């Protein structure tokens, strides 16, 4: 791969997109050089903003000719560094792909990748339809990035993740071919499933230019409750018990005490009284079309919760109260990060194993000298672990923390879980892939990458370990 | 590929499985030489019945050494010829893989591939859990075959298809490696999704030896109604209208008049009075935990149906009546086939396009001189087209019907649908793959096949067109 770009490349890029969509200045390059992953900044050598799949196709052909990296860039809210131009090259900002077309007849939508997730969700709501995936960053992340990372969010336990809504993709392949991966149908048994191979491939196998999404009829009611637990472990245990009682909540979020305390200090205009002895909270939502049914389900949940040591349950009675609780939950990540240098892991296990996972994380912290703040989507066993630098020495941060992370990942895998539930592997987790996969398995993945992208120009250095 | 097997191969196979699991006699070979696809019989040269993944691994290594085809064989209920040993070789019957392990704590199950789908569903029911996919052949098809073909069934419109329940797979790769493709989690963004690449790959990329399935809490109530339409086209139109009214039925099945008439003659002990003017029926089910809610939804559906020309709706009041209606629906395929030589196509389109599809199918029949009987899972746009030979000449059957099928498939693709919704491509549809995919796209699929199986020994001659 070449890092120094030949001058006439810029002329050729300009001929494709027009000069107004080509940027070489440092400010722009640095702007597109970071996402939300720690404090990394890897600026691309040039930023282009193509407007059509055909322009992207021409760019890919050029990049193959010159063997220059191309990194697709979406909302830059990623937490695994998937959009970082770690080898420089062409930063391909997808921001001009913003169309939404809702097909009410088929309960589907054709969405372009730069559409903000929340904008898409609201456009669907307006037509009485529902796009469930709602990553915490929904106000700024894009649908294209959601597909690339197979994003989840708070409603995945009932409604599934991004992959469960993607029916078909228009993709520019690394060689410049433009294909539709599948069909706009709910069922498909026609050839190998390249749609699902593309979802979650973190922009390394193709550039997504259109997404056909399945939609559901909207439901109109929900009940939201915040449950304070005197013991963290019991909050984790309660999660599986609720499902075992036959309830599928629409959200079931876990927050350690520090997570909620730090967030209450970070977020304006929201306050909750919490007893000192409370160690963790569950935020539980049920949703549906029939309020009576929701009351019955809420009662059943309370029946389960009675078996644990909890303080008084807070029910959000108004839309404002609901929004305030969700605002807290969504701000946890940012609040925790604003507190200290940190590393975030996106562990996921079968939900019944959560208490084992939490215990193991705390043990690893004790062993390697770090504090962790845990929160996340407990309903699907997805626990975000924020490892806090605090007053740890730089030396220990560099040498001890990776050992602790490795032990935590080894634990997730031994519990039949894996490294990432919804953030992806990207740049920052690739060196741990050997924990989840055998060498032969990783070689198969590498073979797929090589098949799609023989010159290794599309988002190189992501997902797969370097030493493979 | 070798078709004549060296004698010492049998000795080596015998050393792996033991002689009691090795069969060379013609009767056994012919028994494993057919599935439910038309009247094909392609016997394997030898039938083996391995008992462990390790035995399969040893068999694959042997087959690679001798370049001998291996065809995994499940319940042999397939409709696209996926389990036919078209090049002879080793017929690998999975029938000894019959364990079910239900994990009530995580709402999951580990199922071995030879478990009959209905047996698995009932085992889940007994624990208060629900495995929704229910192909019409559920009484004899196997879970492994369901995964290989990405089977659907009548409940897919609400609950999704097989792929939506597969969390993780233990697979013996063509080179003999045994891997787990993913993790036992509801969310996973860790590397390329080999789980979903394996689902629907029709036994050409690996041999599935264990399946981790997601389960749901069981629901206890449903309402089932049979709706006679005086116009077939209106029955198709009503399908999308029901969804547009905000209802997601748990089943929405379409049957042309011939389909139901032939089935009533074929099935014992069931009778329904149908007016001569009725052209088609919809069988509609809603399900859930709350009978009151189901009555509300049934009322809403009746509100939609009022807009169409229908005869009196038949409500199934008892379990016996429900079973009788489902018995009819499930027997349609067999009944139609018992009537004449036939070819079955598994067309699928976005559901609003169903009336266009049905009209196009009838036009093609008129143009090429064949009669068709259509029925299927209208709720997800999946229409089974049985092309009936009747008194057509052998010559026309051979030359004209394929032209008609090609036109029908071209129509499905132009309507944003595709060739197969749930039966797979297998042996009988592979020559139509160029309609759904560009050559570059098919070359990618072939590249994947080559990557997994460089000697092309695992189920060769399936899915991809011969001339690729």
Automatic annotation (TrEMBL), chains A, B:
<dbReference type="InterPro" id="IPR016166">
    <property type="entry name" value="FAD-bd_PCMH"/>
</dbReference>
<feature type="domain" description="FAD-binding PCMH-type">
    <location>
        <begin position="40"/>
        <end position="218"/>
    </location>
</feature>
<dbReference type="Pfam" id="PF02913">
    <property type="entry name" value="FAD-oxidase_C"/>
</dbReference>
<dbReference type="GO" id="GO:0016491">
    <property type="term" value="F:oxidoreductase activity"/>
</dbReference>
<dbReference type="InterPro" id="IPR016167">
    <property type="entry name" value="FAD-bd_PCMH_sub1"/>
</dbReference>
<dbReference type="InterPro" id="IPR004113">
    <property type="entry name" value="FAD-bd_oxidored_4_C"/>
</dbReference>
<dbReference type="InterPro" id="IPR016169">
    <property type="entry name" value="FAD-bd_PCMH_sub2"/>
</dbReference>
<keyword id="KW-0274">FAD</keyword>
<keyword id="KW-0285">Flavoprotein</keyword>
<dbReference type="Pfam" id="PF01565">
    <property type="entry name" value="FAD_binding_4"/>
</dbReference>
<dbReference type="InterPro" id="IPR016164">
    <property type="entry name" value="FAD-linked_Oxase-like_C"/>
</dbReference>
<dbReference type="InterPro" id="IPR006094">
    <property type="entry name" value="Oxid_FAD_bind_N"/>
</dbReference>
<dbReference type="GO" id="GO:0071949">
    <property type="term" value="F:FAD binding"/>
</dbReference>
<dbReference type="InterPro" id="IPR036318">
    <property type="entry name" value="FAD-bd_PCMH-like_sf"/>
</dbReference>
<keyword id="KW-0560">Oxidoreductase</keyword>
<protein>
    <submittedName>
        <fullName>FAD-binding oxidoreductase</fullName>
    </submittedName>
</protein>
<dbReference type="InterPro" id="IPR051914">
    <property type="entry name" value="FAD-linked_OxidoTrans_Type4"/>
</dbReference>
<dbReference type="InterPro" id="IPR016171">
    <property type="entry name" value="Vanillyl_alc_oxidase_C-sub2"/>
</dbReference>
């Amino acid at each position: 791969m070449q890092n120094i770009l030949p001058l006439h490349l810029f002329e050729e890029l300009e001929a494709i997109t027009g000069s107004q969509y080509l940027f070489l200045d440092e400010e722009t390059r640095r702007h597109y050089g970071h996402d939300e992953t720690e404090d990394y900044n890897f600026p691309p050598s040039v930023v282009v903003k193509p407007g059509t799949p055909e322009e992207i196709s021409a760019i890919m052909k050029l990049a193959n000719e010159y063997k220059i990296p191309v990194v697709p860039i979406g909302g830059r809210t990623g937490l695994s560094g998937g959009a970082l131009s770690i080898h420089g090259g062409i930063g391909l900002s997808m921001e001009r792909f913003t169309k939404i077309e809702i097909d009410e007849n088929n309960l589907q939508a054709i969405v372009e990748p730069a559409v903000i997730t929340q904008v898409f969700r609201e456009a669907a709501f307006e037509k009485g339809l529902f796009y469930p995936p709602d990553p915490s960053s929904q106000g700024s992340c894009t649908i294209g990035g959601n597909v690339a990372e197979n994003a989840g969010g708070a409603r995945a336990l009932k409604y599934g993740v991004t992959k469960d809504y993607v029916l078909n993709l228009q993709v520019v392949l690394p060689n410049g071919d433009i294909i539709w991966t599948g069909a706009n149908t709910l069922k498909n048994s026609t050839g190998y499933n390249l749609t699902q191979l593309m979802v979650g491939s973190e922009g390394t196998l193709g550039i997504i230019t259109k997404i056909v999404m399945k939609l559901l009829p909207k439901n109109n009611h929900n009940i939201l409750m915040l449950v304070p637990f005197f013991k963290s472990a019991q909050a984790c245990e309660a999660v599986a018990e609720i499902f075992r009682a036959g309830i599928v909540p629409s959200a079931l979020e876990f927050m350690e005490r520090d997570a909620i305390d730090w967030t209450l200090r970070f977020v304006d205009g929201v306050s909750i009284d919490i007893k000192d002895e409370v160690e963790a909270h569950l935020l539980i939502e049920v949703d549906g079309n029939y309020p009576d049914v929701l009351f019955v389900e809420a009662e059943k949940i309370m029946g389960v919760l009675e078996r644990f040591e909890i303080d008084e349950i807070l029910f959000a009675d108004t839309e404002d109260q609901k929004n305030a609780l969700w605002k807290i939950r969504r701000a946890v990540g940012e609040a925790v990060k604003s507190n200290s240098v940190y590393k975030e892991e996106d562990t996921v296990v079968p939900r019944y194993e959560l208490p084992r996972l939490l215990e193991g994380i705390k043990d690893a912290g004790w062993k390697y000298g770090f504090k962790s703040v845990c929160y996340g989507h407990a309903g699907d066993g997805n626990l975000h672990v924020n490892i806090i630098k605090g007053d740890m020495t730089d030396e220990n941060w560099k040498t001890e923390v990776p050992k602790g992370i490795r032990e935590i990942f080894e634990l997730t895998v031994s519990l039949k879980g894996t490294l990432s539930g919804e953030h992806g592997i990207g740049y920052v987790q690739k060196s741990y892939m050997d924990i989840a996969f055998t060498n032969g398995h990783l070689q198969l993945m590498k073979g797929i990458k090589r098949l799609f992208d023989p010159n290794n120009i599309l988002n190189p250095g992501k997902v797969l370990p370097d030493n493979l």
